Amino acid sequence: MRVLKAVLAIAAALCLAGAAGWHYATDWRPSTGEYPVQGIDVSEETGPVDWLTARARGVDFAYVRAIGDGTRRDRLFQSNWAALGEAGIRRGVIHQFSLCQPAEAQADAFVTFVPRAIDALPTVLELELDEGCARRPERAQVLAGIRRFLEVVEHHTGSPMLLKVSEPFEKAYAVSGAVDRPLWAAQEFFAPLYLARPWRMWQASTIRRIDGVDRPVHWDVVAP
Fold first, then answer.
1. How, if at all, do strands 201-208 and 61-68 pair?
2. pLDDT at residue 12 above 60?
3. Strands 61-68 and 38-42
4. Confidence of residue 2 (pLDDT cuts 50, 70, 90)
């Protein structure tokens, strides 16, 4: 009986420690002393956002996905974009690049769906290895496609884009050393080191919980 009680006590302690650790992880963000400008990026997977509440909880800026899977319009883009303007939060657009769609078609979709806005933050090209797209072209073909996309979209927006490059995509295609654009890196909790050049932005968490959003958000900071 004593052994059973001891085992149960240990199990209970571990559960409490796990719960406390999870709460810390979902509440964590990088120090505002080191990174004064912090915000989030969202898509239809995030669900609806109360942007006034988010602003009150420390969201200085927000990036919203406009195009997913290369050519598909994010179903919450328009409502997010309008609400951000009303809430007075600096806003920017993300295009999720696809290795399964021609770069020209992706650029056409962006120009069609995304309005030119003089108050917008620099547009972001998100480069990830999507499990829904099994195609893996040669590096030269991928880099050429990225450059074609940038040429068209930057002419539309009137400013250089940021490249949000995941670590697996960087390992596969070494984009950061080949395409001269500001970089956005992504790594949980620890500042990333996998890019060939210093990053301008860092996605520091994908599990942060804040008031105003029912689901976890991607929490981002700007390099000081």
1. unpaired
2. no
3. parallel
4. low
**Cross-strand bridge partners of residue 41:** 63, 218
Grade residue 117 by pLDDT with cuts at 50, 70 and 90. Answer: confident
Instruction: Give phi and psi for 18, each to the nearest 5.
Output: -65, -40
Question: Which residues make beta-bridge pairs with 219?
Answer: 40, 205
CB 105 within 8 A of CB 132: no
* HSE-CB for 45 with a 13 A CA cutoff: 10
What's the chain's average pLDDT?
A: 91
Contact 198, 165 (CB under 8 A): no
Paired tokens of 85: 């303007």
Question: Residue 23 has what pLDDT?
Answer: 60
pLDDT of 67-83, one tens digit each? 999 999 999 999 999 99
CA distances for 54 relative to 59, 130, 183, 212, 222, angstroms: 6, 29, 25, 6, 18
CA–CA distance, 152 with 107 (Å, rounded to integer): 6
Q: Residue 41: which of 224, 223, 222 has the closest Cα? A: 222
Angle at 125 between CA 121 and CA 126, to 5 degrees: 115
Q: Where are the alpha helices (DSSP H) in 48-187?
A: 51-56, 77-87, 103-113, 139-157, 167-173
Q: Which residue has the tokens 């059973």?
A: 4
Q: How far apart are CA 14 and CA 170, in angstroms?
A: 38
